[in-house]
Write a structure and sequence with these properties.
heterodimer; B: Rossmann fold; OB fold (Dihydrolipoamide Acetyltransferase, E2P); six-stranded mixed β-sheet
């Protein structure tokens, strides 16, 4: 290997692995069980798992149909819609949180009506956590599933039509089963992204222990008061991400694999 | 869209039991024009080269494409009628379409592939499977019921695709190049089996193919499509013996020359591309030729355009000018190619200026004896009784005459 390539490559690997090594080396392994048994840690973990799973479920319900529309529609403006839909992928999460406040806050675009009609105030509730996570994670699912739908064999849908199968039945019986691997991959990605969500959540939902304080927020707050707990929580998140990666290994760890 | 279904002519008339279609489709720079009628139980082969519009025609019949003008009627139901803006999409048509690439659902077992139409119609899984199993057994595919499409050979996949189409109990059956994706041996075995299955089907059947043998074996009637137009229609023996165009003649392995009949008495034909042939044959008639059995059915008048057909096996090849003999057609040419067929050698001979080019079949021994090689000058002869002239088709395309004749080359 030529050294102008091998050298920087080595630096990149070290750069990526060094922080992980730091985390593992500095981890208070002996106190770990006790740290993780603390009620605030457990409630943060519980809230995180609950809200990330719910956000993934919501993303599946709305995201798969959206991916289908983006992949199948040939109307003008669909590419603009695609760009807008994927915007949260690149948008700083904090900006997303502010935007959510402006839309769903008590004086927001839609929020003011929710409040005056139903007395509903979303910010700083568990619902707000789920909304913030869905907002940030949904595009991951949409992009993954849309790609799969795009490259799926339209001929099979035609064949289904000639056999008397209506569009929705064909989607359910043919299209969806064929893109199922991508739906699963997209869901794992979406779930991992929701689990790690910080910026939009803390902006839109705040940090109320047991209600809106998710794992990443707990890590951030614990870093000042109780660094060992922060490291312990980080390890848990790291473990979850490694598990997610293992689930996706066929897609990501093979050369040339794409989302 | 002011017309009513009655104004669409005979092709769109409700009440026909089979398929009646008058199809005009404009797309980009391509125009497809075809009129076809297929009786229940009849198999029509649409034969044509790639790009002729065969698959487009099939997609129109299946309801995957709408006609620009014209109408499609099957079993008395109007499925497509441009004049009244009526279009029944594929989902609501009762059509069995066997795709060239089969398009079996890869995630379903063979049984569930065949049961798919039943499920789509709202049958319970158990009922749909039971009915599918009947079709599977009828086609002798029982052993394959639990396999996935990926575990099938090409021939098996073809059979399953047919079973899946038949299980929908369609009014009309459409097959797109049904055997094209198979290797030669499987194709041979499947061709006759497919013929049997098609014979058993009660509705009209349309088979699209570019393989003349497939058309000859499978079909009751052949329709030749070239660049979006019908150039010939007839029984397999008519098409095989009296090809209407260069393309059909080549498919059937015949030499075809357009010309003008100058002397009906002797059968002298002046060929458009130069040369003269004396035609006294009655069609490359053999046993089974029912349409032209009795000699010369309609002798064309002097000066009328004719097509002259001459089988490669009926031409004799000589190294030097043959002496006086019974052959009335003798001409010279230059060998331009030699190709070994299974049991004989096909020699391409370019005619000298003023004489026709031809494909000639000789034995391998003759090639060796004559020492044939490209560029060599040879003499060809053919008995007048082997040369058949028949009226050039003009009535076939409903949309105008064939532009196959060059007026200035007749002189």
């Amino acid at each position: 290997m030529p050294w102008p390539l091998a050298g920087p490559a080595t630096i990149a690997v070290v750069f990526l692995l060094l922080p992980l090594a730091g985390l593992l080396v500095r981890a208070p392994w002996r106190d770990l069980p006790q740290l993780l048994m603390q009620p605030e840690v457990r409630s943060a973990l519980r809230l995180s798992l609950f809200s990330a799973t719910l956000a993934t479920g919501l993303s599946l319900l709305a995201g798969v149909p959206l991916a289908w529309v983006l992949a199948r529609s040939s109307r003008p403006g669909i590419s603009l819609l695609r760009a807008l839909v994927t915007l949260p992928l690149v948008l700083p999460p904090v900006v997303g949180g502010v935007a959510l406040l402006m839309a769903l806050g008590r004086r927001g675009l839609l929020g003011q009506w929710l409040y005056s009609w139903f007395g509903l105030s979303l910010p700083f509730t568990t619902a707000a956590v789920v909304i913030a996570e869905t907002f940030v994670a949904l595009p991951f699912l949409v992009v993954t599933v849309e790609g799969a739908l795009r490259s799926s064999d339209r001929g099979l849908e035609e064949a289904a039509a000639t056999l008397g199968s209506g569009p929705f039945a064909t989607f359910r019986r043919v299209t969806l089963p064929l893109v199922a691997p991508s739906v699963i991959a997209g869901s794992v990605l979406c779930w991992a992204r929701a689990l790690g969500e910080f910026g939009a959540t803390i902006t839109f939902a705040g940090n109320f222990p047991g209600r809106t304080e998710t794992m990443p927020i707990a890590v951030y707050l614990a870093l000042e008061s109780n660094p060992d707990a922060a490291i312990a929580l980080s390890l848990v998140l790291l473990g979850v991400c490694v598990a997610a990666l293992a689930l996706l290994r066929d897609r990501w760890l093979t050369a040339g694999a794409r989302l | 869209m002011t017309g009513t279904p009655e104004t669409t002519g005979t092709a769109g008339r409700p009440g026909t039991t089979g398929l009646a279609a008058r199809i005009v489709l404009h797309r980009d720079r391509f125009t497809l024009r075809a009129e076809l009628a297929v009786q229940p139980g009849e198999v029509l082969a649409v034969l044509g080269p790639n790009g002729a519009g065969k698959t487009t025609l099939l997609r129109i019949l299946a309801g995957l494409l709408a006609v620009t003008e014209g109408a499609v009627t099957v079993a008395g139901q109007v499925w497509d009628d441009a004049a009244s803006d009526r279009f029944v999409p594929a989902v609501e048509r009762s059509v069995g379409l066997v795709f060239q690439d089969y398009r079996l659902f890869p995630h379903l077992r063979v049984l569930d592939n065949v049961a798919f139409a039943g499920r789509a119609r709202g049958l319970r899984r158990r009922t749909a499977r039971a009915r599918a199993m009947l079709v599977i057994d009828r086609l002798g595919l029982g052993d394959l019921a639990d396999r996935r499409p990926a575990e099938l050979s090409g021939g098996q996949a073809q059979r399953v695709a047919l079973a899946r189409a038949l299980a929908a109990e369609p009014t009309m059956l459409l097959l797109d190049e049904p055997l094209a994706a198979l290797d030669a041996r499987t194709r041979l075995a499947l061709r006759t089996e497919l013929r049997r299955q098609l014979t058993g089907f009660a509705g009209p059947t349309v088979v699209v193919t570019h393989d003349p043998l497939e058309a000859l074996v499978l079909a009751d009637r052949i329709l030749v499509l070239e660049t979006g137009r019908i150039v010939q229609e007839g029984t397999p023996s008519e098409v095989a013996r009296r090809p209407a165009t260069e393309y059909v003649a080549r498919l059937m392995g015949l030499n075809l020359y357009p010309g003008v009949l100058t002397d009906p008495g002797t059968g002298r034909v002046d060929l458009d591309d130069g040369g003269v042939l004396v035609a006294a044959g009655s069609g490359a008639a053999g046993p089974g030729d029912d349409s032209f059995r009795d000699g010369r059915p309609e002798r064309p008048a002097a000066g009328s355009p004719v097509l002259v057909v001459l089988a490669p096996a009926a031409i004799m090849l000589h190294a030097g000018e043959p002496g006086p003999g019974s052959a009335r057609n003798v001409w010279a040419g230059v060998v331009s190619g030699v190709e070994l067929l299974t049991d004989r050698v096909r020699v391409a001979v370019s005619g000298m200026p003023g004489s026709p080019s031809a494909l000639v079949d000789v034995t391998p021994a003759a090639v060796a004896a004559l020492g044939l090689s490209a560029g060599q000058m040879v003499w060809l002869s053919a008995k007048a009784t082997e040369v058949t002239a028949y009226p050039a088709p003009s009535a076939v395309p409903p949309t105008g005459p064939l532009p196959s004749r060059h007026p200035d080359s007749i002189a």
